[in-house]
Write a structure and sequence with these properties.
The complex is a heterodimer of chains A (47) and B (263). Chain A is an alpha+beta fold. Chain A contains 1 helix and 2 strands; from the N terminus they run ββα. In chain A, a hairpin with a 2-residue loop joins strand 1 and strand 2. The mean pLDDT of chain A is 83. Chain B has 263 residues and is an all-alpha fold. In chain B, 88% of the residues lie in helices and 0% in strands. Chain B is built from 4 helices and no strands. In chain B, helix 1 packs antiparallel against helix 2, helix 1 packs parallel to helix 3 and helix 2 runs antiparallel to helix 3. The radius of gyration of chain B is 30 Å and the shape is rod-shaped. Classes of the chains: A alpha+beta (47), B mainly alpha (263). At the A-B interface, helix 1 of A face helix 1, helix 2 and helix 3 of B.
């Protein structure tokens, strides 16, 4: 549960500081946002 | 060919999005657990510092109060853990709702693509009378996806709110006593008088002004705790019920759009 794989590297989240976790979260959130936008664009094309 | 490519791209993007959402959830849960543990540690350290400072102020040896302090410490920690545990349950319920909504959203997108593919097949076969049906399905799926977007945002907002609320709530319930300490720079004569007073009544004052208030505070909190825990539990139940209703409404809108072609 507490391991994630980022860029083929397994990270034990328990060993990461809260500050670093927050910056990881920001990075993932911005990737998520751009992916959602790309999905929305594809859906608009289909409509 | 182009449709197949779009389908593959969309599927890949959905898989990537799903991976990101799983990673995000794991990070959010870890942040929550670490942050709450930090809050507990901070509170326990503040209690220890306060106890040591007060003992010094009243000229008392800490080892004489080891047993009393351990009892207070254990009870204090137990109360903190009870509140954090209840919040943890609330937050985990929020995450479960969020995950379910995100999963439903992906299903809506997949169904939209399926309807699109079906529509293309019909267009190719020339049976255009059925096209309207698939257009309706696509619109309904898109609406469903957009409605879930709102629910995802609401869940994320609530999660953020509760993370902030925990520290505030704990600080209000477990007030640091350091601020109430009466320590100041004194002249040599006053220091000597203070030492003499401590020799005579330091033990009694430490009992009256430190140990007794701490025990009373813990007892009072003990009596308030069931209500506080019940309130957090109630918030969990209300939130889950609210989400259940919102999901039912989203499905109702979807069904209505499929059946009648309108909201």
């Amino acid at each position: 549960m507490k391991d994630i794989v980022l860029k083929d590297e397994t990270i034990d989240l328990n060993s990461v500081s809260v500050e670093n976790l927050k910056s990881m979260l920001d990075k993932i959130s911005s990737e998520e946002l751009s992916l959602e936008q790309e999905i929305d664009d594809i859906l608009q094309q289909l409509m | 060919m182009k449709e197949k490519q779009t389908s593959t791209v969309l599927t890949n993007k959905l898989v990537q999005l799903n991976d990101l959402e799983i990673q995000k959830s794991k990070i959010l849960v870890t942040i929550f657990q670490k942050t709450t543990q930090e809050i507990i540690n901070k509170k326990m350290q503040a209690l220890k510092n306060d106890f040591q400072e007060q003992a010094r102020f009243y000229g008392q040896k800490l080892e004489d109060y080891e047993e009393s302090y351990q009892k207070i410490r254990e009870k204090y920690q137990e109360q903190l853990i009870q509140i954090v545990k209840q919040y943890h349950e609330l937050v985990m319920n929020l995450y479960l709702e969020l995950q379910e909504i995100q999963c439903n959203q992906m299903i809506a997108i997949t169904n939209l693509k399926k309807s699109y593919d079906k529509k293309q097949e019909i267009l190719d076969s020339g049976k255009i009378d059925k096209i309207k049906e698939y257009d309706r399905k696509m619109k309904a799926c898109l609406q469903k996806k957009n409605n879930y977007d709102k629910l995802v945002k609401e869940c994320e907002k609530e999660l953020d709110e509760y993370q902030k609320q925990i520290e505030k709530k704990i600080n209000a319930l477990f007030k640091d006593r350091v601020a109430q300490l009466f320590l100041r720079e004194e002249s040599l004569i006053k220091k000597i008088i203070h030492k003499i007073k401590n020799k005579i009544s330091g033990k009694m004052k430490f009992n009256t002004y430190v140990l007794e208030p701490l025990n009373v505070e813990i007892e009072m909190r003990d009596s308030k705790l069931p209500d506080i825990l019940a309130q957090i539990e109630q918030e969990t139940i209300l939130f889950v019920a609210k989400m259940k209703q919102a999901k039912a409404e989203t499905n109702q809108i979807f069904e209505s759009m499929i059946e009648k072609g309108e909201i």
